[in-house]
Amino acid sequence: MAKDSHNSSLPPSSDHFSRQRKSSSLRTRSGKKAGGQPSHQGQTLEMSALADEIVMVPSVTWCQHCHRDLSEVEVWLGFVQKSIISL
Question: Which residues have CB under 8 Å from 12's CB, separation 6+?
Fold first, then answer.
């Protein structure tokens, strides 16, 4: 095998371009677009009706970084629903 910059310590300027390198992949193209195919039926994991655990987060009265009073700041009182799946 002839040595070039890919398989030795020779600099790239010493490569001779007599023929191009072949692709090492033997896979052929399928003709399909990348990503999900239109004919594939997807599956979605649904949220559980009953929560295993509910985590209560205490209200914050001051900023941990600048120690500013947050008692007069408008607060979003909502909840976030997350589903955690253990494998």
Answer: 5
Three-state DSSP class for 69? strand
The Cα–Cα gap between 24 and 16 comes to 19
* DSSP 8-state assignment for residue 58: P
pLDDT at site 20: 64
Residue in this structure with the two tokens 């890919």, named with its chain if needed: 6
pLDDT digits 0-9 by tens, 22-51: 667 788 888 888 888 788 888 888 888 888
SS3 category, 12: helix
User: What's the CA dihedral at 43, 47, 50, 54 to 10 degrees?
Assistant: 140
Chain position carrying tokens 């009706």? 49
Provide the token pair at 78: 């909502």
